[in-house]
Structures are given as C-alpha cells and as structure tokens.
C-alpha cells in the first residue's frame, strides 16, 4: 500500500461514521498535487436537508475527536455543506447537489476510494 492509499484508507473512521448515519455513496478522492484547496475530498450524499445536517454534525464530531480543526460553509444551502479540515474537505450533498457539482467528473483522474457499507 502506498502513501496515497494509506491517506484514503486512513480515513476509515470518517467513512464508518457517515455510513452509520446512512450516508449514501461515500467516496474519497486523493487530490494531492492537483488541487490548491485540499489533498483529499470526501463526498457523501444525503436524503434531505435534515439528513445533510445530521451528516455534517456527525462528520464534525468525528473529525474533532481525531484532532482536526474545522470550518463549515453552506449551512443555508439546499444542495451542499462543506467542512474544511485543512488538507481534508468533506462535501455533504443532497442528491441534486451531487449531480449538479459532479466533483467525481471534474476530478476523474484522481485516485478514488469507495466505502463499502457493512451492516
């Protein structure tokens, strides 16, 4: 396993927390060297505004427990919430927001990790 795979797999604590709250289609993209914004994007889709807030709060709590400092944008948006944790960005999307922003297409050359759900 190289450093890129380690970086994405090392966020398993976050993927599991989001999956425990029924976050959908959890994907991480390794953007090191590609983006001036963050080295890693984690994306998750929610079913509603309330679910987006739940996923945002879960991600914040989980990141704080693991020593990340965070800021949040998009709290009033019906499509998207962004958690900036320095070199990590967590994008919580509505279904329409995920389709609209389509970050997987924009960053299609990035190494991707898809979280597999386990009940």
Short structural description:
With 119 residues, the protein is of the alpha+beta class. The chain contains 5 helices and 6 strands; from the N terminus they run ααββαβββααβ.
What does this entry look like structurally?
The chain has 119 residues and is of the alpha+beta class. It has helices at residues 3-9, 12-20, 49-65, 95-101, 103-106, and strands at residues 24-30, 40-45, 71-73, 80-85, 88-93, 111-114. The protein contains five helices and six strands. The protein has a six-stranded mixed β-sheet with strand order 3-4-5-2-1-6. Helix 2 packs antiparallel against helix 3 (49-65). The model has no long low-confidence stretch (mean pLDDT 90).
C-alpha Rg (nearest Å): 13 Å
Beta strand %: 25-35%
Proportion in helices: 25-40%
Order of strands in the sheet with most strands: 3-4-5-2-1-6
Structural class: alpha+beta
> How would a textbook summarize the main sheet?
6 strands, mixed
Shape: globular
| Topology, number of strands | 6
Mean pLDDT: 90
Termini distance?
26 Å
CATH homologous superfamily?
Beta Polymerase, domain 2
CATH level-1 class? Alpha Beta
> Count of helices?
5
Q: What is the topology?
A:
Blueprint: H1 3-9, H2 12-20, E1 24-30, E2 40-45, H3 49-65, E3 71-73, E4 80-85, E5 88-93, H4 95-101, H5 103-106, E6 111-114
Parallel strand pairs: 2-5
Antiparallel strand pairs: 1-2, 1-6, 3-4, 4-5
Task: Describe the structure using short key phrases.
119 residues, alpha+beta, Beta Polymerase, domain 2, six-stranded mixed β-sheet, 5 helices, 37% helix, globular
């Amino acid at each position: 396993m190289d450093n890129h795979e380690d970086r994405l797999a090392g966020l398993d604590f976050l993927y599991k927390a989001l999956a425990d709250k029924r976050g959908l289609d959890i994907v991480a993209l390794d953007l090191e060297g590609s983006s001036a914004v963050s080295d890693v994007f984690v994306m998750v889709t929610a079913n509603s505004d309330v679910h987006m807030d739940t996923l945002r709060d879960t991600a914040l709590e989980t990141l704080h427990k693991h020593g990340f400092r965070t800021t949040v944008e998009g709290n009033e948006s019906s499509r998207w919430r962004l958690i900036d944790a320095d070199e990590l960005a967590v994008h919580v999307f509505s279904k329409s927001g995920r389709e609209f922003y389509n970050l997987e297409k924009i960053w299609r050359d990035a190494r991707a990790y898809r979280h597999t759900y386990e009940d």
